[in-house]
Specification:
17% helix; globular; 92 residues
């Protein structure tokens, strides 16, 4: 785990789109801290993403078989978007 994990930045990127949505594949936003409100990110993914942003910040391994350091989650719409969450490495 990382010290000061609550201050760890997490990137969220739209990976796929399955219906009508204001977001597009490639849209990227940053949680400046895990409980941050991210301007421009719709509520259909903002609130569901928060726990996974915390897991990323903590360095908790995900269920993804190709890369345990990222999480992929779906927004609340049944025909919505899939998002990838990943830690942003600390700047030194």
């Amino acid at each position: 785990m990382t010290e000061n994990w609550w201050a760890q930045k997490v990137r969220i990127t739209c990976e796929s789109k399955h219906g009508v949505c204001e977001h597009n594949v490639g849209d990227t936003y940053v949680f400046e801290h895990v409980q941050d409100y991210v301007k421009g990110l719709c509520s259909g993914i903002q609130d569901p993403a928060r726990p996974y942003a915390a897991y990323c910040a903590l360095g908790q391994p995900s269920w993804e078989s190709d890369d345990k350091s990222i999480y992929r989650i779906h927004c609340i719409s049944k025909k919505g978007t899939v998002w990838k969450l990943e830690r942003i490495p600390d700047e030194k």
